[in-house]
Design goal:
Number of strands: 21
Shape: globular
CATH superfamily: Porin
CATH architecture: Beta Barrel
Structural class: mainly beta
CATH topology: Porin
Strand order of the largest sheet: 2-4-5-6-7-9-10-11-12-13-14-15-16-19-20-21
Largest sheet: 16 strands, antiparallel, barrel
Distance between the termini: 5 Å
Number of helices: 2
Order of helices and strands: EEEEEEEHHEEEEEEEEEEEEEE
Helix content: under 10%
């Protein structure tokens, strides 16, 4: 980070910071389960993935009596020269203006990661194709309003009003409320996300709860619960995450429900100038009346996308397992070379996919997907 301090009546500073990350990815997608409604032959694809590279400015102005005005402007950087559809590169990452008090906490307005997403980002490989949040949170919503990616609980939300409490003896609370942005017509779609955390000694524990009103139709409510814990042991860390996602969908004049339980176990260890990261993530089969799969007497499967919530639907064999391992070599405190490997295996009727790799809920069920990523990240 580079800091600029400007002399004036009220002490102020502006800091420039960023993260640049690029990787060569080779991924292989197997053919679909034989009973799938849509065939999906095996394929191999190579690409340069820029991941979540960004550039930002943040500043503070001392207003006296322990109160500060704060701002942050954060923008995407596309190192491969390709801007994905729907991505506005300028000031569309975590961007805010507000007030900060060491005694009373922080209030701000803008676009920001929800407290639920902040919890999920603490697993290995965040913001990459290997991001376990795509299973734990059922997809990823990068800079979205209430009408966009409605099934996702890993969201960077627009139109956000937020309060963060001060840290008191290791405890902190965060509350975000996303206003109805008018994009969902006459309904009152909005989001509420809260998180409590405690860090003390080698332990960190967190709990988050998030509700989405009218995301699945008028008078529907989706709810997400997330629990997190980790322990640092010497130069290593072990941790676990659990999420329970509950959906309501207005379908054909009625209401259908879905519940999915997901979890991750992870660990990392540092030795010399190197580090190892491992993770296992389980997306559970859905339960409830939102059933997007129909079976013919011959065993063929018909997919109804309207009866899915993101990548999830009700029924046996609709889950997935994801295995990940990564090696880091630290060139300096700021720059790292990495090699990551992921294997995702859908169950017979599962339709989960790595972020940015293949489209979900395509009708091709039971896919197996392998991703190898070789790259570099530098921070400033």
């Amino acid at each position: 980070m580079m800091e600029i301090v400007r002399p004036c009546a009220a002490q102020s500073s502006v800091t420039m910071y960023g993260l640049l990350q690029n990787a060569f990815e080779e991924y292989h997608v197997s053919g679909a389960n034989a009973s799938s409604a849509v065939s999906n032959p095996a394929s191999n694809t190579s690409r340069l993935a820029t991941y979540g590279s960004f550039f930002g400015l943040q500043g503070k102005e001392d207003l006296g009596d322990g109160l500060k005005a704060i701002f942050q402007l954060e923008s995407y950087v596309f190192l491969n020269g390709q801007q994905p559809a729907g991505f506005n590169p300028v000031n569309s990452r975590n961007t805010r203006v507000g007030l900060e008090s060491q005694q009373y906490g922080t209030v701000f307005f803008g676009v920001w990661d929800t407290p639920f997403r902040d919890l999920l980002s603490r697993v290995p490989f965040p913001g990459t194709t290997l991001d376990a949040g795509q299973l734990l949170g059922n997809g990823i919503g990068n800079t979205v309003g209430n009408a966009q990616v409605p099934a996702s609980f890993e969201r960077r939300q627009t139109n956000t009003v937020a309060y963060w409490s001060p840290v008191i003896h290791g405890f902190q609370a965060r509350i975000h409320y996303a206003l109805n942005d008018g994009s969902t017509g006459s309904n009152g779609a909005h989001l509420l996300s809260v998180r409590g955390s405690y860090t003390g000694g080698p332990f960190t524990i967190m709990a988050a709860y998030e509700t989405h009103h009218d995301y699945g139709g008028l008078d529907t409510n989706d709810r997400g619960l997330a629990l997190y814990g980790d322990a640092t042991i010497g130069r290593g860390k072990l941790g676990a995450v659990f999420t329970q996602l509950s959906y309501e969908r207005a379908v054909s004049g009625g209401e259908e429900t879905l519940r999915v339980n997901n979890w991750t176990l992870f660990g990392n260890y540092l030795f010399g100038s190197s580090g190892i990261n491992v993770a296992f993530t389980r997306a559970g089969s859905g339960s409830g009346s939102l059933k997007g799969l129909a079976f013919s007497p011959t065993g063929q499967v018909t997919v109804n996308p309207a009866m899915f919530a993101g990548q999830a639907t009700s029924g046996g064999g609709t889950g997935a397992n994801m295995y990940e391992i990564g090696y880091d070599y630290y060139l300096s405190k700021r720059s790292t070379l990495f090699a990551n490997l992921m294997y995702l295996k859908n169950e017979e009727h599962g339709s989960y996919a790595p972020f940015g790799a293949v489209p979900a809920t395509s009708g091709a069920l039971g896919l197996s997907e392998t991703v190898l990523a070789l790259g570099m990240v530098t921070r400033f």
